[in-house]
Amino acid sequence: MDILKGKVAVITGGSRGLGYSIAQAYAQEGAQVVIGSRSAASVEKAIASIRAAGGEASGIACDMGDRKQVEALAEQAIEKYGHLDIWMNNAGLS
Questions:
Q1: What Cα–Cα distance (Å) separates residue 16 from each residue in 2, 6, 37, 68, 81?
Q2: 46, 36 in Cβ contact below 8 A?
Q3: Which candidate among 2, 18, 58, 61 keeps its CA 20 to 30 Å from the CA of 12?
Q4: Residue 86 and residue 94: Cα distance in Å, rounded?
Q5: Sign of torsion, CA 8 13 19 20?
Q6: How far is CA 69 from CA 5, 21, 41, 66, in A?
Q7: CA distance 61 to 69
Q8: Which of 41, 71, 77 is nearest to 59 (CA)?
Q9: Is the overall model pTM greater than 0.90, yes or no?
Q10: Are 63 and 69 a contacting pair, CB within 8 Å?
């Protein structure tokens, strides 16, 4: 359906669990997904999986407790895709 076609979505905690599922769903609906998560290896794995399924994804390792890293995540989305439409806060500890 591509209901998110042309939208850029940042998903924090997007490399596994609920965040990863959200990233997959957004990509399947046409969004360009930007994943932020603490582990660079996990981010790369999630990006590769979304791309393998035909989606568009990028991302960086990012600690949501560090304002500069959060700002870098937003800047990465804007530099890569030109704008930012959706910010999904999923990162956190239980």
A1: 23, 24, 9, 23, 23
A2: no
A3: 2
A4: 24
A5: positive
A6: 27, 23, 17, 5
A7: 8
A8: 77
A9: yes
A10: yes
Count of CA atoms in the C-beta half-sphere (13 A) of 52: 6
> pLDDT for 15-56, tens place per residue?
999 999 999 999 999 999 999 999 999 999 999 999 999 999
The pLDDT assigned to 94 comes to 56
Q: Which of 34, 45, 29, 42 lies closest to 12 in space, CA to CA?
A: 34
In whole numbers, what is the pLDDT of the chain averaged over residues? 95
Tokens of 24: 């997959």
